[in-house]
Structure formats: structure tokens, C-alpha cells
Amino acid sequence: MTPTVRRVTINDIPEMKRKGEKITMLTAYDYPTARIVDKCGIPLILVGDSLGNVILGYENTIPVTMDVMIHHTKAVVRGTEHALVIGDMPFMTYHISVEDALRNAARFIQEAGTQAVKLEGGATVADKVRRIVECGIPVMGHIGLTPQSINQFGGHKIQGKTAEAAKKLLDDALALEQAGAFAVVFETIPAPLATLITQKLKIPTIGIGAGAGCDGQVQVINDILGMFSDFIPKHAKQYAKLGDIMSSTLAEYFEDVKAGRFPTEQQSFPMDETALKELKADKN
Ligand code: KIV
Q1: Which residue in 24, 49, 45 sits closest to 36, CA to CA?
Q2: Would you say the pTM of this structure is higher than 0.90?
Q3: Which residues have C-beta atoms less than 6 Å from ligand 1?
Q4: Residue nearest to atom 8 of ligand 1 (CA)
Q5: Domain ranges of the chain
């Protein structure tokens, strides 16, 4: 069957930077959410390993495995026809060897059906990025406060604050560009630094907690929808309070069932009168 909607390709993304069009990326982890995001026209959907935190309830992204990512990514891909879907390579699935990185990147493309993968790290993973790209798999980089290194950072700390750390981030971004990454995510770094690196790179930069000077922005969907009321990351704007809406909706359902107000005739199925009479008359 011929698809009616053209899917975004990696060529569209640098083109957006060239034209000065801001790039929007959002995470999704399941079929219904992916459908909604896709129909909004958002060009990039990331199946982030942040699902470890926001979907599976882990403290961080470290426990997320390839099998879990593939399971969720397949559902997201099934819900999209327009967005370019990016699979996030989980902790230690691309560090041990180039072979490992290639095998796992290939699973996203071949099994889950994504158009690209993302991995965390700069110069230290550049050899893996280069080989994955050479094998025909587009790669998005990710530097700054990379959550898979949370134990190394000793917590959620802004990265690139000193001149030395800022220079390292610039070198990392350039290393990713040279290795063939089509875009790079900057997470939790000072806004002026993100702007400076963005101006130095040919590939687009996508920020999360990196200010308005990036070529695009990415957010974790649960944060902007307000699924959790107890924690709002500083980089996120809550556009809605879906968690509160869900709670009050479910409370109403609970009350209705207890009070016998649900279901009504509207949600019930009638039965043929004669059949019902026969059944009632049946002695068994
Ligand atoms: O896993 C994720 O959601 C991410 C984004 C925060 C960029 O890596």
C-alpha cells in the first residue's frame, strides 16, 4: 500500500537549520501517544530511554535494556506515519565494542522500524557513531548532562560551566559532527554555551535545558503534559495538568460505579424480548 503522508527524513532536519526553522522533537513511548504526536506534525519523535523514569518508575535510565526499548519503539513506530522516529540506545549497549554498537543500532532499524538512533557521549563514542553511520544508520548525538552517566556526574548537575568543561563540550560536539551525526542533543548546559556551539556546528542542535539558541528543542512528553505534580524539571514548561485531569476523571468513575450511576442504558446492550422470555420460562 502506498503511504499518503511523506515521512520526515534526516535530510529535512539540516534543511530546517539552513532555513532558520526551529526543530521540534518530543518523546513518546506507546502507540496512542505516538499517534497524537505524529498527527500534530511534530517532525521528530524520540523513544527516549527516559521511559525508565517516566513509564517504568525506575530512579534513572540505567536499568533500561535493549529488549524493553525495542518493545516500546515498535509500538511508537506503529503509531506514526509522518515523524522521523529515533530509538534511544540504552546504557552499555554501544560502549563495549563497535560490533556491539552496530548490532544494537541495527535492532532499532530492523526490528523496531525506526529511521535513526541516538546515543550519549562525545569524542569517546565517535568511532561507534562513524561505523553506525557508515553502515547506513543515521545517528543523533547527545552531550551535556547525559542521564546514563548520572553516577559519574554525581547527580543532576549543569555541565559545561567552567571554560575547560565548555571547551570539552565544544570538542565533543565537533567530534560527533565529524563522525557523521545528523544532529546533536544538548542537555542541561548554559544557554550561552549552547548558542555558541550551535553557531559553530553545521548540523542542527536540539536543546533540553540549553536555552533558546539551539536549532530545536526536545522535551519529555510526560513533563509538558503535567503527568506528575510532585516534580517539574526546571527545563520543562507544563502546558497542561493531565495528571490532575486523570485523577478527577477516575474519581468520578469510581463514585459513579459505587453509586450505581454507571453503566446506564446508553452503555448497555439490549436483548431480544422473546429470547429473554424463553430464558426466564426455562425451568433449568
Ligand atoms: O531519553 C530521553 O528522553 C532523552 C531526551 C531527554 C533527550 O534522551
Answers
A1: 45
A2: yes
A3: 27, 46, 48-50, 88, 142, 185, 208, 218, 220
A4: 48
A5: 12-240, 245-281
